Amino acid sequence: MTLTSAIAVFDLGKTNSKLFVFGADGSVLSETRTRPSWVEYEGLRVLDDEALFNWMKVSLARAVKDHAVAHVTFSGHGCTFALVEQDHLVHPILDYEQEPPQALTDRIDMLVPAFGETYSPRLPLGFNYGRHMLWLEAVKPDTFSRADTVLPYPQFWSWKFCGRKVSEVSYIGCHSHLWAPLRGYFSSLVHSRGWRGKMPAFEKAGAALGHWQVTSNEEAPVPVVVHNGVHDSNSALYYYRSVGFQDFTLVSTGTWVVIFNSACPLEALDEHRDMLANVTVDGKPAPTIRFMGGREYDLASGGWNKPISPEALSRVIAKGVFALPSFAPGGPMQGLEGRFVGPEVEGEERAAAALLYVVLMTNLSLDLIRSDNAIVIDGGLVKTGLFAEILAQLRPSQEIFTSPTAEGSAFGAAALVFDTLGQKPFANETRQAAPSQLFGLEAYRDAWRTLAEIDEPGAAAPKKEFHA
After folding, report:
1. What is residue 455's predicted lDDT score, i.e. its pLDDT?
2. CA–CA gap between residue 290 and residue 283 (Å, rounded)
3. CATH number of domain containing 64
4. Is residue 111 part of a domain?
5. What is the tens place of the pLDDT at every residue in 207-218?
6. Domain of 390?
7. Residue 460 lies in a domain
8. For residue 468, is pLDDT > 90?
9. pTM for this one?
10. Buried b (16+ CB within 10 A) or exposed e, 368-403
11. Does residue 459 form part of some domain?
């Protein structure tokens, strides 16, 4: 089978949503982006889904006209769900970064299954989206009961485009409290709350689901095949496996730094460290650790968006300036408030301290997830300039590779569609990172761990914990 038409991938993040168009040879033909709008609704922060849908329809129509796109799929950030009744939402989609009222949290959290069943740690806000489902069920029982379907975020968008309601395992298995990875089935929470009937049948990520008709005033409607979407970080994991990596650790960076190491035993996962078992697109547990590294870098750096020089990093190390955890919720050092110690710095030096912080948190996370194999780094933090090189200096026994695309989630979603069509256009284009030569980096790491009161991997979690 020869594919002569292009594939569109909507890569839907919390703060940025993008459309990538891939040619039949796997090349990126175009990219466009927008910022989703989160608005107030009855005291809650929710997605303006119609505004985002309008952008998606216009962008897809342009891609069909400019690049003869004939397929579309979706890659989506975790933690988000839609309550649907027949052909409409019964409640707007919640922003996952909001905490249920304190009066409800104890009652909600008592219903959550044990970590040994779901491998979903108890996290704040809506990082476990089953927790937000319990919240809506408690405060709006009539609205919740009217919903006939709970759709994961990527499947909400495939439904909007083709009208078919399905589930997908990598998203439902993403620290939601809704999935039991060892059983490969829904958790006891789904059954005890009577939600099983609201969960539609599963389809494989990348499977063809239906069609969307792109219409214009001048021409006949053009059908676009709609494919089942996927959880973004699991999509990146699939992409690197598809180009030949097998025994490796993936560091997927964006708003979140999500680290997968399938070689880590499940018994090593510590729920208090934001460690969990994600689920791959083929339903297998994927040991994971994560922290909100992209968000933390933005906050700690003061919004710095340019590369950082080795000279600035060297000055920060020499001055003894440290950023200490944590600048955002979740992660392996929960319940600590992010702060700087040492001489005050601004501009590029502050950004250098923030970059060192994110590298050191990544290094700690790699220790906790027992990474001793090859490492692949994907996503936005590669663009800071020296992220991979600093990590390579700290982990000299491991090969560290970076991707020239930095968009593994979109490439993975496209690869899943190409697989469905019997095509494999992508090649391994990663490059090995050369270690940086920062004088004093190893001593700086040791001092950082002492200042942050970080226990050695395998020890108990920090004393200052956040209990959701």
Report:
1. 63
2. 20
3. 3.30.420.40
4. yes
5. 999 999 998 777
6. 244-451
7. no
8. no
9. 0.90
10. bbbbebbbbbbbbbbebbbbbbbbbbbbeebebbbb
11. no
